[in-house]
Task: inverse folding
């Protein structure tokens, strides 16, 4: 399972520009937050951005799980 720091390199891993040399990772607590003033948190443009950002994170995590589930031949 990818960890939070792996997510920083997600697109490079997904697109093959980086390779993870070891199947080893540390489980970390949730380390990212979406932060905005409470007064603006329900504005449509903020909610739309938050929903898009979360959907992108879910998609990246799915792609990374697929990469890490594939074992190299050899």
Result:
């Amino acid at each position: 399972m990818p960890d939070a720091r792996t997510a920083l390199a997600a697109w490079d891993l997904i697109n093959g520009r980086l390779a993870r040399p070891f199947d080893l990772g540390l489980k970390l607590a949730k380390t990212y937050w979406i932060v905005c003033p409470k007064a603006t948190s329900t504005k449509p443009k903020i909610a739309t951005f938050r929903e898009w950002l979360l959907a992108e994170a879910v998609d990246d995590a799915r792609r990374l799980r697929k990469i890490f589930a594939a074992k190299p031949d050899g």
Notes: Residues 11 and 41 are 28 Å apart (CA to CA).
